[in-house]
């Protein structure tokens, strides 16, 4: 079984963090789980402190920096052949790992994205859907590609490739910067359908309108600069 490194950026997810860890363990027993708590203030850190598992590495940021910064910390410790990014909530299902890594194991791809729009999913927030569609269109025009879900959490990489990319984004604009830099390497991104159970703001969703504009700016900027 392929050794996977699962990177989990965490911020205020006390209600879901243990459940997502348990789901990962059930789906992929040999997974190396690397958690970076991004200065949670809701008690998540107390929960993490009680975990005693040699396959789980936990690191803490002293101040909140964002998803991109948490992933930057996490990737340095990844030792698996393939790395998967996993949010700490329950929107994404680790049962999809198998289909996500097949293109890489088959030698068809170095990068795979799990598309929420190709697979079964709970109805999305309308304006989030519109924003996603526009970001995808903007990226496809700029980079001459046909992505359906650039902003998906489920991004899967050959670990050596992800380690080789020096991204600057500290927050949610990680999604667009990493995609831009992959496409500029002339690597094709393989998409597979995934299931998705989206949550709303009352359930802890954090991405907002300003992240939409940061995403567009990031795509435009990295089209023309390194």
TrEMBL record:
<protein>
    <submittedName>
        <fullName>Glycosyl transferase</fullName>
    </submittedName>
</protein>
<dbReference type="InterPro" id="IPR029044">
    <property type="entry name" value="Nucleotide-diphossugar_trans"/>
</dbReference>
<keyword id="KW-0808">Transferase</keyword>
<dbReference type="GO" id="GO:0016740">
    <property type="term" value="F:transferase activity"/>
</dbReference>
<dbReference type="InterPro" id="IPR001173">
    <property type="entry name" value="Glyco_trans_2-like"/>
</dbReference>
<feature type="domain" description="Glycosyltransferase 2-like">
    <location>
        <begin position="5"/>
        <end position="164"/>
    </location>
</feature>
<dbReference type="InterPro" id="IPR050256">
    <property type="entry name" value="Glycosyltransferase_2"/>
</dbReference>
<dbReference type="Pfam" id="PF00535">
    <property type="entry name" value="Glycos_transf_2"/>
</dbReference>
């Amino acid at each position: 079984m392929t050794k996977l490194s699962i990177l989990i950026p965490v911020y205020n997810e006390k209600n879901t963090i243990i459940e997502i860890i348990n789901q990962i363990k059930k789906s992929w027993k040999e997974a190396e789980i690397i958690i970076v708590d991004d200065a949670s203030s809701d008690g998540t850190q107390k929960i993490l402190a009680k975990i005693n598992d040699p396959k789980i590495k936990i690191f803490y940021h002293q101040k909140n920096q964002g998803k991109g910064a948490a992933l930057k910390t996490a990737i340095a410790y990844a030792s698996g052949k393939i790395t998967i990014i996993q949010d700490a909530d329950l929107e994404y299902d680790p049962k999809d790992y198998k289909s996500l890594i097949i293109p890489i194991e088959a030698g068809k791809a170095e990068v795979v994205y799990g598309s929420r729009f190709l697979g079964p999913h709970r109805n999305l927030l309308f304006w989030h859907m519109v924003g996603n569609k526009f970001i995808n269109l903007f990226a496809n025009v700029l980079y001459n590609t046909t992505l359906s879900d650039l902003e998906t959490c489920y991004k899967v990489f050959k670990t050596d490739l992800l380690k080789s990319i020096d991204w600057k984004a500290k927050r949610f604009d990680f999604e667009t910067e990493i995609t831009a830099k992959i496409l500029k390497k002339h690597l094709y991104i393989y998409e597979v359908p995934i299931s998705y159970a989206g949550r709303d703001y009352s359930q802890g969703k954090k991405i907002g309108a300003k992240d939409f504009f940061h995403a567009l700016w990031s795509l435009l900027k990295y089209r023309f600069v390194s």
